[in-house]
Amino acid sequence: MSKAPVQVPCPWHQEEMARLLDQHQRERLPHALLLAGPEGIGKYRLAQSLMQTLLCRQPSAGVACGQCEACHLSTAGTHPDMHVLTPEGGSRAIKIDQVRRLVEFCSRTAQFGGGRLALLSPAEALNRSAQNALLKTLEEPGPGMTLILVSHQPSLLLPTVRSRCQQRLLPVPAADQALSWLTPQVGEVAPALLDAAQGAPLKALVLQDADWFSDRRRLAEQVLRVAQGRLSPAQGAQALAAFEPDTMARILYGWLARATRLAALGGAAIPAGEGDAQLEPLLRQLADTVPVARLMRATQRIQEGRRQILAGANPNKELLMEQWMLVLVGVDAALQ
């Protein structure tokens, strides 16, 4: 039997993987585990690797062997003792019907005689009804059942869901560790990609093909011109609205956070290997133009807008981004 392509945790999650497997060996692994942290740091990859390793009949060196029947089934997504819930059919939500299928799965007997596992990602995609439908299963999933929830925004989960899970808060990896993993894959653009992804390496890997990334200097110039009064907030918003609100919220938040840091550092240089060489001069000008308190207020408003979007809001893109630009120039229009 050929070796199956099993999932391996990212280097910065190997210690966490070892801790989880140690818990399992001591029969202390929780029946409901919540892996929480920023998007794009490898939480789903860690969850997949843990699931495949726990299903494997002969794991080796802390990962699934890739050779047994269980590994071939789990990597193909057909293992009868695993269940994966993600948004289906282009939806952004995990619906209650999917949760009902999970509840039914949890009531079954393991077909391979070992444990059974379910993976839900992203957990915040569960709407309120779906989360409520999951509560009893989270509390009493049944013998040998382990549920792994992956969340980028755990604050969007009901407190009753969070309280039934053992949470593991996973931060972004250290910049040097992230760059050592990313650079061989993307080359010299790695620091710029990592900066654009707010330090999340897997997100950075995806961003190299994003339309806005190749256009980032022009977009940053538009923001700077608005801050300097050379462009109206409405004109600046028009350029930004060519991209999805959630995407631009993340980008603007990162740029303004960087400008805030530059302002705090004064004339000090950012450590070598950090930041985006194309954008650094523009962000320094932004830091010199906008008072720190206003930069911080703008980042807060952008974060509030992003939370609304993640919660399901569908705002007018140009109006939302114009409101963000108005805050940047000192007009505190409340987000709608």
Explained architecture:
The chain has a five-stranded parallel beta sheet, with helices on both faces. The longest helix has 21 residues, at 245-265. The protein folds into two domains: 11-169, 3-Layer(aba) Sandwich (Rossmann fold); 210-328, Zinc Finger, Delta Prime, domain 3. With 336 residues, the protein is α/β, with parallel strands linked by helices. It is built from 16 helices and five strands.
Specify Rg, calculated over alpha carbons.
22 Å
Largest sheet: 5 strands, parallel
Q: Under the CATH scheme, which class of the largest domain?
A: Alpha Beta
Number of helices: 16
Strand line-up across the major sheet: 2-3-4-1-5
Catalytic activity: DNA(n) + a 2'-deoxyribonucleoside 5'-triphosphate = DNA(n+1) + diphosphate
Keywords: DNA replication, DNA-directed DNA polymerase, Nucleotidyltransferase, Transferase
Organism: Alcanivorax dieselolei (strain DSM 16502 / CGMCC 1.3690 / MCCC 1A00001 / B-5) (Alloalcanivorax dieselolei)
GO biological process, one term: DNA-templated DNA replication
Features:
336 residues; 5 strands; 7% strand; single chain; alpha/beta; Rossmann fold; 2 domains; elongated; nucleotidyltransferase; P-loop_NTPase; Zinc Finger, Delta Prime, domain 3; five-stranded parallel sheet
Write a compact overview of the structure shown.
The chain has 336 residues and is an alpha/beta fold.
